[in-house]
Amino acid sequence: MTDVRPRLVYRVHAVQRMVERGILEEDVARVIAEGKEIENYPEDKPYPSRLVLGWVGERPLHVVTATGEREIIVVTVYEPDPALWEPGFEGRRS
């Protein structure tokens, strides 16, 4: 049986940020699989992208992904700053 799920591809920038911030690949995969899309950027090039919010225990994480033909590209990963995001981290502060 062939696995048709898209594979996760991590950009160098994303890996650097994950190491700096103590974020594991399993955490990123969980956020992508179970998180909530809070922003969508269909016009991004070369692929449309989106911002996903997920929680690892009590820790909120934002993951920016782009969707290629057979892959999900992890662009960056970060813990959202409460000064920049509304409570719950789903909307930006004005």
Detailed description of the structure:
This protein is α+β, with helices and mostly antiparallel strands. The chain has a single domain (7-78), classed as YaeB-like fold, CATH 3.30.2310. Helix content is 21%, strand content 37%. It is built from 2 helices and 5 strands. It has helices spanning 12-21, 25-34; strands spanning 7-10, 36-41, 49-56, 59-67, 71-78. It has a 5-stranded mixed beta sheet with strand order 1-5-4-3-2. A hairpin with a 3-residue loop joins strand 4 and strand 5 (71-78). The model has no long low-confidence stretch (mean pLDDT 94).
Mean pLDDT: 94
Low-pLDDT segments: none
> Class, according to the CATH hierarchy?
Alpha Beta
Portion in helices: 10-25%
Q: Given the C-alpha coordinates, what overall shape results?
A: globular
Q: Which fold name corresponds to the CATH topology?
A: YaeB-like fold
- How many runs of DSSP E, i.e. beta strands? 5
**Element pattern in H and E:** EHHEEEE
Strand order of the largest sheet: 1-5-4-3-2
Radius of gyration: 13 Å
What fraction of the residues are assigned to beta strands by DSSP? Answer: 35-45%
How many structural domains? 1
Give the count of helical stretches: 2
Question: What's the SSE blueprint?
Answer:
Layout: E1 7-10, H1 12-21, H2 25-34, E2 36-41, E3 49-56, E4 59-67, E5 71-78
Task: Give the key terms.
5 strands; alpha+beta; 21% helix; single chain; 5-stranded mixed β-sheet
